[in-house]
């Protein structure tokens, strides 16, 4: 198996991380995409749904840089174990209380693994893989992170249809707690014996973490994530309440979206090693722009299948985009660089879901149309601002130049 592991970039840390993402994701995806409908069941208004989406996005922003700083200080592997334990506390809160307030409190802990842990996952791949292997590593990580989204939502939708929303969600919370505990124990065993983290690293000014190519990517990325964030929590409401389809059918649509994404990953990653990464990032942004418009224009399950396939193609350039970020980052402060990037992006888009909720109360179609307009602006910014190559190739890993 060694040649296959080498070809896929599955060194020990990367392989353990990928499997952890799969196990954790399968439990969470049984219920996470149904939280807006769960909140509606508990009595939440559309504005509260928007506030929940804003809180989730705000935590992405607030957790990103501290997560990177903790990863640089403790070591990425030790930091991941700590964040996984925090997430288990959130699953316990959801299992213990079925109230709107509990959903809002629990998300503070549930987001620890995906948000606080994000810079640490980038750091592990950046530490263990170099050059073109980074795209392959991010591809494998993305596939195993999204494969549960293919498998779990239909099962979660079936639980909701069979047991009812309250009992079905509680079964999902229990599954997350069990699988999350197994993931934590597995990661502890896999990371045992790793060298202690380096200490005493000099701390550079925060501005030095984002070189010019990364700032340009960030500007376009903010517009695209606003495009994604406005309708995000309302897509299930559109499918279930406006088009009158069942939660189980929404689960099938989610699986179609992720299957499309997974199928697109490997050929895109292989081509990205031979072509400019900018072209794949730009293509990704085009599909981000088209997805909300396609959902709005869909009035049947058959139409939604095509729309969600477009949604799946939004991931076609994600490995290239993440490799671009790692290539631009200073290896001595990689966690903080990734954390700062996602913190700025998260702060900029944190209010998107609330704005989407306000537009929804005026007219649901406005949420999708505004998202499409923002996506078009982000795609244009990427086309004109992003360089074909960040400073030639990789500013830090290969050129060794200091941050601009």
CATH architecture term: Up-down Bundle
Given as residue ranges, the uncertain stretches (5+ residues, pLDDT < 50) are 196-208, 392-404
Structural class: mainly alpha
Domain count:
1
What fold name stands as the CATH topology? Growth Hormone, Chain: A
Main sheet: strands, sense, barrel? none
Secondary structure layout plus pairing:
Elements: H1 2-7, H2 12-29, H3 35-41, H4 46-74, H5 76-96, H6 100-110, H7 112-116, H8 118-128, H9 133-163, H10 165-191, H11 212-229, H12 235-242, H13 247-272, H14 277-296, H15 301-312, H16 318-328, H17 334-349, H18 352-362, H19 364-385
Brief digest:
By secondary structure, the protein is an all-alpha fold.
Structural account:
With 404 residues, the chain is an all-alpha fold. It has a single domain (10-191, 208-385), classed as MFS general substrate transporter like domains (Growth Hormone, Chain: A, Up-down Bundle), CATH 1.20.1250.20. The chain contains 19 helices and no strands. Residues 196-208 and 392-404 have low confidence and may be disordered.
